[in-house]
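User: Second chain of the day. Same drill as before.
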Amino acid sequence: MTNRILVVDDERSLCELVDTALKLRGYTTTLATSAADALHELSSSEFDVVLTDVRMPGTTGLELCERIVALRPGLPVVVMTAFGNLDTAVAAIRAGAFDFITKPFEVDLLNIVIDRAARHRQLSQQLQRLERQLENTSRFGDRLLGASSAMQHVFDRLAKVAATDASILITGESGTGKELAARVIHDHSLRTGRPFVAVNCAALPEPLLESELFGHARGAYTDAKDARKGLFLEADEGTLFLDEIGEMPPTMQVKLLRTLEESKVRPVGSDKEVSFNVRLITATNRDLESAIEQQRFRDDLFYRINVIQLELPPLRSRGTDVLLLAHDFVDRFAQRNHKPVTGLSEPAAEKLLAYSWPGNVRELRNVIERAVALTSFDKITVEDLPEKIQDFRGSQLFVGGTDPAELLTMEEVEKRYLLHVVHAVNNNRTLAARILGFDRKTLYRKLKAYGLADDED
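Assistant: Same format as last time:
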C-alpha cells in the first residue's frame, strides 16, 4: 500500500524538496503552505502521516498538531523545527506529536522518521481492525482462535475429521494447542457429551503409565488395595487423548498396539480382558518418522495411530494472529484481575509481532497474563513486556557480501542454509526435508557430510 503524506510548511521551496525526497521513497504526497490549507486537505482526504513545520504565520505547527490529534486520533504528526532544543521537543510531544526532526536534516533521516511514523499508523489501524474483528473472528468452538490462512486450513481439517471416528495424530511444537485441538474434535464429534480423558505419556514412569491406562486388579502390587479400571475404560464411548506419545517407552508401545488392535484391555495383575470403545487421539512435538528410523518408536504403532494427521502451525508462522490472540488474552485476564486494561499500545504490538515465540501460544498467554498484572495503564506498554521481548532482534541468514574475499563457496552456502532450516523447524527433519525439496535420507546424508548429524541421528 502506498502511504499518503501531508507536508505542511509555509516555505514552498522546502515543501517541494521534501516532496521530491518522499516520492523517490514511493510515498504519495500532498503539499500545504499553511495550517488552514492542511486542515482543508484533512477534511476531504485520508493521510497516513502529517509532516509539519513549527513556525508558520497564523496557526503554528504545534497548534495544528493539537487540532489533528483531536480531529484524527491515531494519525501520526511529525514536527519539523529549525529550533531543535529541549523545550521545542517537549512542547511537540505534549501537543501529541509522534516524533520531531530538526532542520536542516538529511534526507535519509527524514525517510527513517517518516517510515517509522507510517508503520505506526498501519499498526494502529491494524489493531483497531483486530479489536473490531475479535468478536466475529474465525473460531472453532470457543477454544481455537485465528484468522491466518494457516489456521483456516486447520479449521477446515478439524471440521472434516471431527465427524469421523478415525484415529488422529496431532503434531506441532510445544505450546501450539494440541490438547485444545483434541478437545475441539471431541466436542464436535458424535461422542460429545461422553468422557474426554487425557493423559501425558511423558509425565508418568512406565509401571504407573501402564496402570493408569489399563487399570489394575486388587493386589496386583503392594499398594493396590482396590481394583482400578484404568483410563481406557474411563473413556469408554468417549475420547482418549494420549499426549506426548513419542515419549512412551518401547515396551509400553507394544502393549498399547495390542490393546488398540484387539479393542480389549487387560488390567495389570488380571487374567481377564475387558472390551472398550474409544476414539483415540494422540499428540506429539517430536518427529516420529525420525524416531522410527532411530528405532525409538514402532512403525506399526505409528501407522495405527496416524490414520489422519493434523499439524498445528507454530505461532511465528501465523502473522497477525499474534495480536488477535493477545487481545483475547488481555480481555480474559483483565476481567479475571478486575483491571481496566483494554488492549495493546502500538509499540507493544510491534514488539509482539517481531518476536519469534519459541513457546508458541502458551508463551504468549503467559506474557499477556504477566503484562496485565504489571501494567499501570489502560493499554499494555513495551515496559510491561519481558526484557527478552523488548530486546529481541530477529536473526537473518547472511551468506556473504560483495567483497570477493568474503564470498562463500556453494558448499558453505548449502551447509549454512541446511542448518538454518533445521533450526527454524525445531529440528523436525521430516518438515525440513519437505521445505528443502529433499527426501529424508538425502537430508540426513547432507547433514552428516557437513558434520551436522551424528550416528545416533
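Residues 107-133 form the longest helix (27 residues).

User: Great, on to the next one.
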